[in-house]
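Exam prep: given the inputs below (a chain plus flavin-adenine dinucleotide), describe the expected output before reading on.
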Amino acid sequence: MLNKKNIRKLTELVGGEDYLVCTKIPLYTFSYDASQYFGNPDAVVFPTNTEMVSRILKYTKESGIRVVPRGAGTCLSGGAIASNGGIIIAMNKMNKILDINPANKTIFVEAGVTNKQIQNAVESHGLIYAPDPASMNVSTIGGNIAENAGGMRGVKYGCTKDHVLGIEVVLPSGEIIRTGQLMGHNDQIDLTYLLCGSEGTLGVVTKALLSLTPLNSDVVTMTAIFSDLGDAGQCVADIFASGVVPTTMEIMDNTLIRAVEDYTKLGLPKEAAALLLIEVDGYPSEVQGQVPKITEIFKKNNAVSYDIAKNENERQALWKARRSANGALGKLKPSMIVQDVVVPLDRLAMMLKNVSKIADKYGITIAQLAHAGDGNLHPHLLYDYRIPKDVEMVEHACDEIFREALAQGGTLSGEHGIGLEKIKYMPVAFNEASIKFMKSVKEAFDPDNLLNADKVLP
Ligand SMILES: Cc1cc2nc3c(=O)[nH]c(=O)nc-3n(C[C@H](O)[C@H](O)[C@H](O)COP(=O)(O)OP(=O)(O)OC[C@H]3O[C@@H](n4cnc5c(N)ncnc54)[C@H](O)[C@@H]3O)c2cc1C
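Solution:
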């Protein structure tokens, strides 16, 4: 618990009461993220510049106060909540775009800028910022870096870490460091990769230099319908094996197709076992060469039918189906856990089928959505949090999904992070030496264990 003296000092450090929250009801709004976890912070501070973050962290270190960095709070693994009290450093007021350099294809931003702000700012230069998480309208670049966020374009363009050239970070000691291209020279141990995906456990990201990608001139969007979920999974593996690298490959299962159709009335086939959404982009000749290869693979994998969007309206309708997934499922049950495991592509078909079996075994509804091109499955487990049996069955199902993914040679998380949710599986996924080494890295950055202290590492 913070005392009055702590609150007075923090208020002074952020420049007044407008930049600090410490009363019950407003604090409640920071007690959750998009996961099923809760935790009340003792205060939330809103710094407006790096030096302020540095002064706050010097003070929290001196006073032994726990700290959780936070962006938009869309975290799906409990990483953005203060599970053991302390303060939240909310980065939302550090939301300036500092520089756009179309010639170098870079953008320099503060950490509280949203992904969408970046997309909007670079569009007129014929550029995109390639990582496009479904939460892009609100999630911040600091949160995207901390979670190494992926997105629909990840298959071809990679995840956040592939587009971060350098970051400015405030360490738990309050010291400010810069990494990668922000150091100004290349003869360094580049800490950028280490910090990307470290889930706010090593430092608070305050600024980032990001690389931009030219907007491709031609795009073709297509869908295929399958009467067997495994065939859709095999189709994805075969497309990769053929040498084609689509921008996007998303699989929706029957539960999801029905939910989306009831919600959007787009005319999706409610009887289909799976819908595969594929987009390819590039120069027109390159794209047009890929389309027949893909349709051949559809046929080989028993696609019932396939369709190619004939114009932008049709393309947007297909994307609407995909983007409506979360909202549509929200209508089915009061609670939902979105899981996030990854398996090698040649195990995708098997994993999709096994998740369906797990749903049957525990008598619960699991809607499956997969960033299939990355082998990244998002089983959406639907339940009613007021029914203890439901909660128990969902817990068993989650446990089995994690263990199944690991047994298939996969990993615990593709993009949502370990946070609080998957800590107990870390010793299953990693050997003792790896965990010991990760802990020694954490200790080097944060010897007092104050920053996001109870996350990621067991
Ligand atoms: C509907 C929905 C769709 C989603 N779709 C995707 C998707 O397609 N791809 C994907 O990858 N994720 C997705 N997510 C998960 C989430 O949006 C991402 O993890 C996102 O990167 C989190 O950003 P945020 O600003 O909300 O961060 P928060 O949720 O506030 O924080 C996330 C983590 O980052 C840390 N953190 C935040 N800011 C900083 C900072 N400045 N410095 C250091 N650490 C920091 C926090 O401590 C926490 O551990 C989705 C979530 C929802 C609710």
